[in-house]
Structures are given as structure tokens and as C-alpha cells.
Design goal:
mainly alpha, 2 domains, 75% helix
């Protein structure tokens, strides 16, 4: 994100230098205002085209930063890490209690926490599944595991007779933990 903002400031400064130079040249050499106006307009068009070239280069990922990662970094600023840590501690506490009701709630709460994070990051959709469909493997390496964890959560919510073992709950909560770690939301 810092590289992108520096690039924009550099472009802006370059345009200002060119415009100041043209004003200086006009005051010395040009007496015809039409010719100067024409050069000023062509300089502006050149600057816009130059900015477009830079945008295309970034879209082609020549600089190494993927545009998706850049937007993700900007969205992460909207997520309150302290709230996530507090909610995650509650999930872990439920898991440690070990009874089936708390195991179910630990998975449901972990899923709900991730859904809240995804909404704050700008992923849209009516359901969490809709938001997960918008995430690529490049954005989140553990997206496939996350889908399996979310399916377990759906089984718990929609099938009350779904038997949940302690081991399965630990594995599912572990998937959510890996996702939060990958997103740098928990330590």
C-alpha cells in the first residue's frame, strides 16, 4: 500500500514539474497563447496516458503486489484486531469446556466471527457461503479447508441430531484458527 501511494505522489509531482516547466517556457519563448494552450493540453493528455500505463502495469502484476492483495490490505484496516482476539478467546474457552453444547457453540461462534470479519473487509453476499465464493486460493490459501469447516457448522445448525465429537470440534476450530492466523488477526 505504501508503494502504491508513493507511486501516486511521484506521478503527481511529475505532472506538477512538467506544468511548471511549461509555464516557464511560455514566459520566455512563446508569445502565441494558442500554441501554449495546445501544448498544455497535450501535456495533460500525456500525463493521463502515463498514469494509465502505470495502472495497466500494476494490473499485470509486474510490481509483484497483486491488486487483490493490495485491496485486502486496505480492507484489513477496517477490522478491529482487539475485538477479534477477544471473541477468539471466547471460542477457545468454549472448546476447552469440552461438553457437546459448548463444542457446537465454539464452531458456530468461530464461523460467525469469520463472517463478521469478511463483511468488514468488504466481501458482499447474502450468506457466508456467498462471501466465501468470492475468495480465491491466492487470497486465502486455506479456503478449501474453510469450506469444509463451514459445512460442519451448517450441519450443526441445520441438523440438530448431527453427532459432534470432541476431536472433530478441535479439528474444525483449528481450521478457523489457521484462517485467522493467515489473515494476521490472531497470534
Amino acid at each position: 500500500m505504501l508503494l502504491f501511494s508513493q507511486l501516486l505522489y511521484t506521478i503527481r509531482d511529475g505532472i506538477l514539474v512538467v506544468l511548471n516547466f511549461l509555464l516557464y517556457v511560455r514566459s520566455i519563448v512563446f508569445t502565441d497563447s494558442f500554441l501554449f494552450t495546445l501544448k498544455l493540453i497535450s501535456s495533460f493528455i500525456s500525463a493521463v496516458l502515463f498514469a494509465g500505463i502505470i495502472w495497466l502495469v500494476m494490473k499485470m502484476r509486474v510490481f509483484g503486489l497483486q491488486a487483490e492483495q493490495l485491496s485486502d490490505m486496505m480492507a484489513m484496516a477496517q477490522v478491529d484486531r482487539k475485538r477479534v482476539l477477544k471473541a477468539w478467546k471466547e471460542v477457545r474457552d468454549r472448546l476447552e469446556k469440552g461438553d457437546e453444547a459448548n463444542l457446537r457453540l465454539a464452531i458456530i461462534d468461530a464461523d460467525k466471527l469469520l463472517d463478521t470479519v469478511l463483511k468488514r473487509m468488504g466481501y458482499v453476499g447474502d450468506t457466508m457461503a456467498d462471501r466465501l465464493k468470492k475468495i480465491t486460493k491466492a487470497q486465502l490459501r486455506s479456503i478449501n479447508e474453510l469450506w469444509s469447516a463451514h459445512k460442519v457448522r451448517n450441519n450443526i445448525v441445520h441438523s440438530p441430531d448431527h453427532a459432534l465429537s470432541y476431536q472433530e470440534a478441535v479439528e474444525v476450530v483449528g481450521i478457523y484458527e489457521r484462517v485467522f492466523r493467515e489473515m494476521n488477526l490472531i497470534d
